[in-house]
């Protein structure tokens, strides 16, 4: 039997493929198990490596491999991760489950126009899913108590939070015991994609595993963030070579 966790630079990833991940998370929701999903790419792994408090959050979460760099790192270190589980696709698949089971969904984060567009698109695509709340990410610290209370009273099965990483996961971990959500998941820029404000890379780029390069070409201002990718590769290889010696 394949082990269910693979460790990449001290971050524990689930080894389940996409469909298996969706089914397993659905089982957890139906079984009353609370789940904090972290969609981790090389950038998140490097943040966890350098930020002890964030690493502690990640170590307790359900971490999925969102990024081809994670799949390659697993291959180089002989670990059984064979498939990406991207945040935006996992969000859509869980919305399909919400549609099927009439789950409550709360959407938090992104810009005001983006979150409302995303809500409208998701409501149209998944009419039986109950969107029980929606709030943009431009709130002041003193408004957090009210937002947490609103989510807690709504008791959503799915809470999707787009506040950027690592802030979104730190926020969910801070209020985890109060939020009353079966599943909490940081979704980064997924609402931008769902709303149509940002285009995903064409399918050919996705198949060639060059989605990161397409995003960099589309948004050159991302170059500093993308430096995490070569740093991640070098760190994985360095650890591999040092473990051999």
TrEMBL record:
Q: Which residues cross the membrane?
A: none
**In which pathway does this enzyme or protein participate?**
Cell wall biogenesis; teichoic acid biosynthesis
Q: What is its EC number?
A: 2.4.1.187
Q: Name one GO molecular function term.
A: N-acetylglucosaminyldiphosphoundecaprenol N-acetyl-beta-D-mannosaminyltransferase activity
| Source superkingdom | Bacteria
Instruction: Write the record's keywords in alphabetical order, separated by commas.
Output: Cell wall biogenesis/degradation, Glycosyltransferase, Teichoic acid biosynthesis, Transferase
Uppermost EC category: transferase
Q: Which GO terms describe its biological process?
A: cell wall organization; teichoic acid biosynthetic process
Catalytic activity, per the record? UDP-N-acetyl-alpha-D-mannosamine + N-acetyl-alpha-D-glucosaminyl-di-trans,octa-cis-undecaprenyl diphosphate = N-acetyl-beta-D-mannosaminyl-(1->4)-N-acetyl-alpha-D-glucosaminyl di-trans,octa-cis-undecaprenyl diphosphate + UDP + H(+)
Q: Which family does it belong to?
A: Belongs to the glycosyltransferase 26 family. TagA/TarA subfamily.
PANTHER family (alphabetical): PTHR34136, UDP-N-ACETYL-D-MANNOSAMINURONIC ACID TRANSFERASE
Q: What does this protein do?
A: Catalyzes the conversion of GlcNAc-PP-undecaprenol into ManNAc-GlcNAc-PP-undecaprenol, the first committed lipid intermediate in the de novo synthesis of teichoic acid.
Name of the molecule in the record? N-acetylglucosaminyldiphosphoundecaprenol N-acetyl-beta-D-mannosaminyltransferase
Organism of origin:
Brevibacillus brevis (strain 47 / JCM 6285 / NBRC 100599)
Which lineage is the organism of this entry classified under, starting from the top rank? Bacteria, Bacillati, Bacillota, Bacilli, Bacillales
**Gene transcribed to yield this protein:** tagA
